[in-house]
Amino acid sequence: MPVSHNSVSIFRVIEKIYDAALAEHALEPILADICKLAGLDRGLIRTIGITGAPAKWAATHNVDEEFAHQHEQHFCHINAYAPYLPAPFPGFYWTTGEYSGMPAVRSSEYLNDFLIPSGFEYANAMVLDLDRTLILGAMFGRDRKRGDFTTQEKELFAILLPHVHRSCTVHRRLGETRSERDATLATMDRLSTGTLLLGANRKILQMNDTARRLCTHANGLATRRQRLTAVSADIDRKLQRALGAALDTGAGTDPQAGSIVSIPRAAPARPLSVMSVPLTGRSAAPLDAAARLLILIRNPDRSLRAARETLQIVFGLSPTEARIAAMIADGKTLQEAAATIGHSINTSRTLLKRIFRKTATSSQHELAAVVGKATVN
What we know:
The protein is α+β, with helices and mostly antiparallel strands. 48% of the residues lie in helices and 18% in strands. It is built from 14 helices and twelve strands. It has helices spanning 7-21, 27-38, 65-77, 103-106, 109-115, 151-189, 209-216, 233-249, 281-284, 300-315, 319-329, 334-341, 345-359, 364-374; strands spanning 42-49, 58-61, 93-95, 122-130, 134-142, 194-198, 204-207, 221-224, 227-230, 259-263, 272-278, 293-298. A five-stranded antiparallel beta sheet has the order 2-1-5-4-3, sandwiched between helices. It has a five-stranded antiparallel beta sheet with strand order 7-6-12-11-10. The protein is elongated.
């Protein structure tokens, strides 16, 4: 039987459709709203493989996952409508009523063994997006006992489905951006350099695992009220001045122009160095478009450990050789490195010669440069 609706209820559903585009998992509620407004029993949004490719995601209302999977399989291999439909394109809309009168469709397995038993004898559908292997489509249906769609209901779908199309396109693009951001954040977490993103008000928007560890024990740095601070009041004033100056400098500056503040720590830990680099919204977009400062925290103690591990892999140095090479790159003399390790100076010279040979260098200055390039993180 026909379902009555008014412009206010239509506009409310359209508003919810676009709200869903901004949420990560909010497509199911709009399916429920559309079904309620149009007097439907069920609906789904599904990526369907054209060439047997797997579906990527689904949103359903009164449709279980088993049905959605069967729909994909039937559509891939028993699509009786294909000969009668134009080549699909985003925005293409059709109803089962337009094709179910055709003998080939009326006798098809897809209609009789799948759609009708599943409560989709009468359905409205639209192609929302497609590429070479996948079609993203929306389908809404109801049981035979409720009858075919009226002219008024078809007009309602003609109003609503284009909005669902645009909403899903925005939703997909935002999902791709989130995936890119998550991948970038995962990469940040593997760095031995502490990394933070600050907004224009200096609040922390993102920070990697290294930065969290450096700020957790209040040994030099800490976080207070979502802001990066130094434990020492005097040092914190210097840090905040540096952050303010970087923000005042404005976006688009040369990354090498970032100011550096040394943060003392309790012995035996060596001071941290904090560098602040202004960002443009575009350069920060993969992580957070609101970011205005990139903060890099270098921990010389951690950097030495990371350098030793890298040198063993890259140049095939032994653990002892890697320790000596890392200390020389950090500014220590060979005598200081020998004393730290507990070797005689003669033994250390022999090890240094092996290091020169493996790294294709001939001086401590050249070795320091090579190690620095090899261990940048």
